[in-house]
């Protein structure tokens, strides 16, 4: 049984989440958001439990998790830095800034620094198109980024 792959406390928390969503129409996304909030990611062992509970295929659950960039399958770092990759920010030079930041951190997109301080993720619009390039550190938006501003944000997140 997939529950056996979850720690007892994780299995209990997952079952509580599932119980809170009984009777909700279209519950998969709300369940996934609640699971991620509880565990800081969607544990692989939770996917079959969720699928069985909703009477859907594991592939469907996995497909939703992998489609939406806000869901992650590994815990994030203490700080999450999201860099806008939308066209308006690209037109303002974000691609080079992002490439430089990833190289400096020694990470790929969705990677977490070895010390667990920073996870860096691409997003495809932060709604600051007129103030691009833009990034979000945890829940704080930052517009009109320069390479120096981004480097400062990353240094502060890494501290």
Automatic annotation (TrEMBL):
InterPro entries: NADP_DH_HndA-like, NuoE-like, NuoE_N, Thioredoxin-like_sf. Gene3D superfamilies: Glutaredoxin, NADH-quinone oxidoreductase subunit E. SUPFAM superfamilies: Thioredoxin-like. It comes from the Bacteria. Pfam families: 2Fe-2S_thioredx. Its cofactor is [2Fe-2S] cluster. [2Fe-2S] cluster binds at residues 84, 89, 125, 129. The keyword Phosphoprotein does not apply. Keywords: 2Fe-2S, Iron, Iron-sulfur, Metal-binding, Oxidoreductase. Its EC number is 1.12.1.3. Binds 1 [2Fe-2S] cluster. GO terms for molecular function: 2 iron, 2 sulfur cluster binding; hydrogen dehydrogenase (NADP+) activity; metal ion binding. PANTHER family: BIFURCATING [FEFE] HYDROGENASE GAMMA SUBUNIT, NADH-QUINONE OXIDOREDUCTASE, E SUBUNIT. Belongs to the complex I 24 kDa subunit family. This is NADP-reducing hydrogenase subunit HndA. It comes from Thalassovita autumnalis. The gene is hndA.
């Amino acid at each position: 049984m997939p529950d056996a792959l979850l720690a007892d406390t994780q299995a209990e928390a997952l079952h509580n989440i599932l119980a809170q969503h009984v009777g909700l129409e279209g519950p998969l996304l709300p369940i996934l958001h609640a699971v991620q909030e509880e565990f800081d990611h969607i544990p692989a062992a939770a996917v079959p439990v969720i699928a069985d509970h909703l009477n859907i295929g594991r592939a469907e659950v996995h497909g939703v998790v992998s489609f939406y960039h806000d869901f992650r399958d590994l815990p994030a770092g203490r700080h999450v830095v999201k860099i806008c990759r939308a066209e308006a920010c690209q037109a303002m030079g974000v691609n080079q800034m992002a490439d430089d930041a990833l190289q400096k951190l020694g990470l790929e997109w969705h990677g977490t620094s070895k010390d667990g301080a920073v996870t860096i993720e691409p997003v495809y619009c932060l709604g600051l198109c007129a103030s691009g390039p833009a990034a979000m550190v945890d829940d704080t938006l930052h517009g009109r980024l320069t390479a120096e501003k981004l480097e400062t944000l990353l240094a502060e997140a890494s501290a």
